[in-house]
Protein 1
Amino acid sequence: MQASVSPLSTPLPPHFIARSNSNLRLCGLRREAFGFRSVSQFQNRGSRWTSVVSRNSRWGKQLVFSASATVADNGSVPPTSFDYDLVIIGAGVGGHGAALHAVERGLKTAIIEGDVMGGTCVNRGCVPSKALLAVSGRMRELQDEHHMKALGLQIAAAAYDRQAVADHANNLASKIRGNLTNSLKALGVDILTGFGTIVGPQKVKYGKVGLSDNVVTAKDIIIATGSVPFVPKGIEVDGKTVITSDHALKLEFVPDWIAIVGSGYIGLEFSDVYTALGSEVTFIEALDQLMPGFDPEIGKLAQRVLINPRKIDYHTGVFASKITPAKDGKPVIIELIDAKTREPKDTVEVDAALIATGRAPFTKGLGLENINVETQRGFVPVDERMRVIDADGKLVPHLYCIGDANGKLMLAHAASAQGISVVEQLTGKDHVLNHLSIPAACFTHPEISMVGLTEPQAREKAEREGFEISIAKTSFKANTKALAENEGEGLAKLIYRPDNGEILGVHIFGMHAADLIHEASNAIALGTRVQDIKFAVHAHPTLSEVLDELYKLAKVNPHATTKPLSEPVAV
Amino acid sequence: MSHSHLLHTSFIPTAPPSLRRRPRWAAPVPRTHQRIQSKIREIFMPALSSTMTEGKIVSWVKSEGDKLSKGESVVVVESDKADMDVESFYDGYLAAIIVDEGLSAAVGSTIALLAETEEEIELARSKTASPSAPASAPAAGNNDAPKVLDEKPSPVAAATPTPKASVGSAAVGALGSAVHPASEGGMRVVASPYAKKLAKDLGVDLKGVVGSGPNGRVVAKDVEAAALAAAKVSGGGGGAAVASPVAKPSGVELGSVVPFTTMQNAVSRNMVESLAVPTFRVGYTITTDALDALYKKIKSKGVTMTALLAKATALALVKHPVVNSSCRDGKSFTYNSHINIAVAVAIDGGLITPVLQDADKIDIYSLSRKWKELVDKARAKQLQPNEYTTGTFTLSNLGMFGVDRFDAILPPGTGAIMAVGASQPTVVGTKDGRIGMKTQMQVNVTADHRVIYGADLAAFLQTLSKIIEDPKDLTL
């Protein structure tokens, strides 16, 4: 969730585009890190690197040897021999995925991390939020007397211990972080601690704040520095009453009333958590409708299920022009202006405000100026193979950028897939990732998932390219397993070409939608057609029959060729 | 929508292919209204399956005034099986939506009007504006009036006392005005999202509600309090009332027909069901001087009269288990192992019977606390099913209104209910030939004569009167 904004349209929500001239604000911690790092750039690296050896652990020792070879030459001439085949800057999910695949392909690999291992997803995003959502899902179920009664259960009042919930999220993050770190170590990936900066072609320096830097050379470099929560101008984040997802995931308090600015994935998931824990929520959305970026039909149904019956209200078509944290007994004050006319519209007073207006790339201090690369609104420009493009529009050799930092599709698994694609190219296989086959999911209760195009996008494409599209839809009410679970609320929708059976998009809203989408995303990735996949057998009774139903409902021209793109499996 | 998966079970034949592959059901062709000369068509609630009698409008895909093309989805309807899109068979404009989202309508009833041209939209709207000119119901016996879907079977879960009674200004005046410190002198109301939702559901004007939340914010309980206060002002207060099953909602619009809420529907069903039980009544006059004295003594410890009466009744029932029994099947006595005293409470828009479980075993102080908790929960509509469905004997007390005697209807599934009148000073003759003043109340028990006979009730009442006239056992 965290890594995503609106993956199928623009990489950033309209707030961002509308305010592209504003200064990006980063959270306090990161800003400090920047400050120190920019100072350290001016330090004389060569004279002080030895101090790193004494202070660093065993990783430090390895650095001595690798760094010593290159520390003398300081110019921009590419080295001829390299410390590593591949250096990845940033140990988030993208960097991790790339590193694992690189080792598998036999590359000598190092990964540089200046903050905690695991990046946003593991520490401040998808992972801890899933822990909170697991709690909220159960709370919601236990509180739904009608649902419980329908199942024949009687439950006394459900209650929760905030600290224990917060601990669950934190413990999960630690565990996953440990797993991720261990997997890298076990495979022999060197973990270099410090913020990485590109000093020249195939050359990266890294160092801890206040310490000297080390320089390593690499045949190829992948930038995977990710993103940080984006906070629009005029909003003062104090980390207590005005917070970003970074703070919210620590669940330090559950306000009676919280405003959530932005109704994309992040906002929606947090509304699920907060309302389950007893908060009331006010959404503030710049667009005219909630949940932009979702297929409109899915969005409408989701609003009917996830917003309207809950203790949620909303203001749409407005910007939060100014948010002042609570102090001196005064509540958090949010000033709203009309998104179009910019006229003051309303003032909202709440106990807390969560800023979920998307994420901004974390690319400052990367030293891109050293190799003539200019970021665009902070994003590193890349081609379809993730190769970095410089200010003159030329490809920078041996430099790639994956994940949120390039802004193509801000999802953790997209970053990983891009990293794997890059490693494939590095090892001699051309590979272009089909971004339309990357699924996205929002882990509300019930979940929302999607892959490929939305209906309006598909219609636009069909018009442009001159083909017909058809839609198949089925309700979870027609699924035995869903009814057994008493979770009949849901819709699955298939957008396809009736002429050749190509799957253009699949959207699911319903129980376990996030797990169900992969059959469709795999079909798109492998080029499987509806007329072929409809013969694949699904176990009965399972939720996956929802997709089976979609394939069977689809009406493909009987003369369409069955042309699987992949070789059939020998039996 | 296909139900192939529902039909996968081995004993049901597979649905024919024609049933399996139909993604949408076409709406019946909207018939031209005979009385209207211009081309205004009605859109009817379609029959989406053979068993469907009514459908719920899930959502209107189009809004009033939108242009429609033939074959375009207009509305999503939920049947007993699935949500389905209903398509228009004509080009035109969606002139008026008659059944709003979330409401149900009988199959064949008009749910919207379709105008052929933009000019006719107004005309169509004027048709819907006059309530005395209902569109002719095509299916005989089907009511055009949309009704709130009975989604929640439990009477308490139906939290909203629906009739959108706008809280009168008189009530508002009594509540004072809410001036939020930061609300620009009361110009702006600061209310939490749930408070706003509740206010809409309960028909409370937020401007007149005093907020008790942080910084004077209006929160949910303020709205509930305001709604309750308004109901009291116009309804005369909430007492217990079995005999008047539906408390009159405040500010009703005279001349209107207001459909029952789910709770009122449940009451209505129970009342009709009770006619199948052969009941009879036995009355008794009980002197309450001693009970009143006891009450005065322990009132300060939080003991309520309701708890005292429930306790006394429970103790009497211990000695007369047959009065605590019921007849479930018409062939046998069901002797209940617990003595659970249900007490009728009027709440906004209905009636509920919170249950004091094991009232014979629990001490009077705990029982009083329990009672308070139950009443609070009932008002907040938070009673759990086991807190209002497990009664074995029911008490209904209208004494606080000065009612001296009345007759209660026996709730189905129980054996007896006791109607308690007001306790009042009465001149009585005593056995030694004197005339004295005593405080007395009349009780009247309605019982199921299949299991409880006259002598049973008489003996029970005698025991009860002894307990009440010498109430020392109540505090044990």
Protein 2
Amino acid sequence: MDVIGASFHNRFVSDSKGKEPDVLFVGDSLVQLLHEFEVWRKLFSPLHALNFGVSGDATQHVLWRLINGELDYISPKVVVLWVGTNNHGHTPEQICGGIMAIINVIHQKLPHAHTLVLGLLPRGKNPNPLRERNASVNALVQAEVVSLSHVSFLDVDPGFIHSDGSILHQDMYDYLHLTQQAYQRVCQPLYERIKSLLDKQAP
Amino acid sequence: MCALSMNSIFLLTVELLNFHSLQSDLVNHCCSFPLRQHVRSLVVLCLCCRLRMSAEENPAAEPAPVIDVQGDGRWMSQHNRFVQECKDAEPDVLFVGDSMVQLMQQYEVWRELFSPLHALNFGVGGDTTCNVLWRLQNGELDNIRPRVVVLWVGTNNHEHTADQVAGGILAIVQLLLSRLPKCKIIVLGLLPRGEFPNPLREKNAAVNNLLRTSLPQLGPVQLIDVGGGFVHSDGTISSRDMFDFLHLTASAYRTISTSLHELLLQLLEETPQERRASLV
């Protein structure tokens, strides 16, 4: 892990010692950047959410972080997992395997938590192999978790791909990362799902 | 002279100058006035050249696109979009650079302070000086006449030394001045990065120091260092300012934008507008 990664990891571990989050977001830049926009303050802060997103992380990085302390001092009721789009060179099966490994670690460390896995978004301005790869990952993960009571899958793509196959820069300014307006569209249904999971878990 | 590298010329000139200062009486008698002037000009030229360094000598001044290894062609898509924007827009201000520029447009501060100045944002995450140079040479300066260009790039030049990075930035500035003769240029200094003191902080500071004196020698160009205040007395940078110890939060962008915005207003007032019709 490089120097920057270590900084995050250490901060996340020490952060988690003082706080009692009900919701934990973990993943890559799509999670990390979410924290920087108004939508986080409006929708997720009130749910007592912590954000452990690290830009560039692939499944193996998230797995390492969760095994090495980031889940040790907290008991969130819901863990939102959003990772996989940075797994370059891996097959959809491998990426799905990575996501399942993370789900298993979460379940081991937090037996009472529910993991909400978010589908990978399409990317790139026009149709390309990574869109196909991400869609395959989603299909595989969805099939794997359907029989697990402590996991559910949520497709958060509100329809970013237009009829001509393109993604607009008004939604993804670099055809990967979300603009504020795109985050609004993604987060509303996500918020609803988290809320209903929290309500189910309430004593 | 052409056979000698710029560094050799520089060293030769320094030798000459040393000789000159030690033996000034002798030189005054022996060297004609034109020769002394020539030596002086040569020194200035070499100081600039040493930093400017041609593409053959400085890899950071070599234009290069980003090759798509991931598979979704995002870099070229962004470049093509900017080239299209040049056909449609008439910006007064052009921001160009890496993610430090690109991310600025995602926060409210862009809409409040910079959109009203008719600013275009040609930032691309991950870009080095080589990538920015390539983009500007391949369409991103076509058909536009911004009065001010804000350049912010260099922190991603991981393969290059501070000297080389500064040379790359100078090469971009030279290109801008040659394509936009009436333009004023603001170069933003590279920010410190990383949670704790580390070699990249030193490198970025070295780049800024090299640019501070060499930039104004090129024309109406200035270095603005907006990095002061990010490093605390214990040497750390807070995640409240840089959420990943590299990229700025909304509040940090707001802090640096105030003075930048004021400077832009000032420069725009000083520089006359060129309407597209007059470019024919």
